[in-house]
C-alpha cells in the first residue's frame, strides 16, 4: 500500500472500533499527516484550507475554489474526491454532523476523536519514516551551512536571515527559529532573534517543516578561544541528554526520559531544579512538539515515533530529532560536516569553534 492508503487504513480501523459512519479531520497537523502535504495557507493559524471526510469507502476533501486547483495539482494524493465551495462560503455546511461522526475538532455534536488521531499519527508509516529521515538530515545540514557563515559582528536577525535562506533553499519551511548571541543565550530559553550583536557565541534552534513533517535541531558556534569550563558545561548538558536517550524505549512511558533527566542534571554539575526552568522536549512529527513530556506523563513511546529532547542549562542546549523504534533509537538530524564528540557511545554535535 502507499503511505496515503496506510494512513487512511488507520483511520478506518478507528471508525470501525468506535462504531462511526465517518471521521472529519479539520486540524492542520492531522490533515498534513493524512495527505503527506501542506494543509495550511497562513502559517500563523491552526485552521487548514480544507477539511477531510473519511468513511469506510471514500475520502472527500471540502475546500474553496481558490485552493482546490493547487491542492489537486501539488498536495493531494490520488484517491481523494474534491468538493468546492465559493471563497465567501464556509465549509461547515458540507460536513456531516451527529453522534455517528467523529472529528479531531470538538463541535457540531460530533464525537471528539482528537486524542485517538494524535495517537495514530504518532507512529509513522514506512513511507513517512523514509521521508522524515531525509527531512531531518536536510534540516541539520542547512542549519550547519548557515551557521558557518556567521561573523561575530552579525546581529541575531542577520543570523536568522542566513538560516531562513538556507532552509528555504532546501525546501524547508520555518515553524520555529530561535537565535541567541553570547549575552542572550545565558538569559532566555526561547530567544527569538533581536538586533543584538552575537559576539563570541551564537546558538540557533530550528523547527523546520516539509510537507507537514518537522525536524528540530540546535547548533552552537563559538568564536575565539574556548575555555575548558565552557567545554565542560556543554559536555555536561550532552550527558543529561544521553541519560534521556538511554531511557527512550518503545513501550515505556514518556515520563522515563524526563525522570532520567531530573536525576542527570545534579549528577552532571547542574542545580537540582535545573529541569524546572525549561521543558525537556517530547513527541514531535507534525507539530514542533505534540506536548511537552513531564515526570507524570503516562503515554507510552510508540514504534517509529519522532521525538525531540532539548535539555538546557548554563546557557547551553542540545537538541536533535530522533526516531524511536523497537530496535532502538536513531538520531536522524545528522550533519556529517559538523564537528562531533562522543558521549555515552553516541556521536553528538560539538561546539563549532571558529
Automatic annotation (TrEMBL):
Designated name of the protein: Unannotated protein
PANTHER family: AMINOPEPTIDASE, XAA-PRO AMINOPEPTIDASE P-RELATED
Record-linked Gene3D superfamilies: Creatinase/methionine aminopeptidase superfamily (3.90.230.10)
Amino acid at each position: 500500500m502507499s503511505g496515503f492508503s496506510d494512513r487512511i487504513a488507520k483511520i478506518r480501523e478507528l471508525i470501525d472500533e468506535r462504531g462511526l459512519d465517518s471521521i472529519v479531520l479539520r486540524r492542520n497537523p492531522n490533515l498534513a499527516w493524512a495527505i503527506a502535504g501542506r494543509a495550511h495557507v497562513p502559517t500563523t493559524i491552526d485552521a487548514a484550507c480544507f477539511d477531510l471526510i473519511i468513511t469506510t469507502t471514500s475520502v472527500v476533501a471540502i475546500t474553496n475554489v481558490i485552493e482546490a486547483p493547487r491542492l489537486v495539482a501539488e498536495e493531494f494524493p490520488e484517491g481523494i474526491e474534491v468538493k468546492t465551495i465559493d471563497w465567501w462560503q464556509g465549509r461547515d455546511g458540507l460536513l456531516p454532523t451527529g453522534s455517528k461522526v467523529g472529528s479531531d475538532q470538538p463541535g457540531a455534536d460530533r464525537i471528539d476523536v482528537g486524542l485517538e488521531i494524535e495517537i495514530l499519527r504518532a507512529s509513522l508509516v514506512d513511507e513517512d519514516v523514509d521521508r522524515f529521515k531525509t527531512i531531518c538530515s536536510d534540516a541539520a545540514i542547512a542549519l550547519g551551512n548557515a551557521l558557518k557563515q556567521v561573523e561575530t559582528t552579525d546581529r541575531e536577525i542577520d543570523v536568522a536571515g542566513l538560516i531562513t535562506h538556507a532552509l528555504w533553499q532546501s525546501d524547508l519551511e520555518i515553524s520555529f527559529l530561535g537565535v541567541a548571541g553570547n549575552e542572550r543565550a545565558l538569559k532566555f530559553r526561547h530567544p527569538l532573534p533581536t538586533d543584538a550583536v552575537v559576539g563570541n557565541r551564537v546558538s540557533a534552534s530550528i523547527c523546520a517543516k516539509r510537507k507537514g513533517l518537522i525536524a528540530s535541531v540546535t547548533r552552537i558556534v563559538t568564536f575565539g578561544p574556548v575555555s575548558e569550563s565552557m567545554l565542560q558545561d556543554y559536555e555536561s548538558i550532552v550527558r543529561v541528554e544521553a541519560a534521556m536517550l538511554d531511557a527512550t524505549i518503545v513501550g515505556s512511558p514518556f515520563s522515563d526520559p524526563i525522570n532520567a533527566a531530573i536525576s542527570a542534571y545534579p549528577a552532571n554539575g547542574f542545580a537540582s531544579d535545573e529541569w524546572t526552568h525549561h521543558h525537556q522536549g517530547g513527541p514531535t512529527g507534525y507539530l514542533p512538539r505534540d506536548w511537552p513530556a513531564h515526570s507524570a506523563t503516562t503515554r507510552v513511546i510508540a514504534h517509529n515515533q519522532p521525538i525531540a529532547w532539548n535539555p538546557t542549562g548554563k546557557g547551553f542546549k542540545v537538541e536533535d530529532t530522533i526516531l524511536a523504534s523497537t530496535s532502538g533509537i536513531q538520531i536522524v538530524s545528522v550533519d556529517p560536516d559538523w564537528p562531533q564528540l562522543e558521549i555515552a557511545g553516541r556521536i553528538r554535535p560539538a561546539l563549532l569553534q571558529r
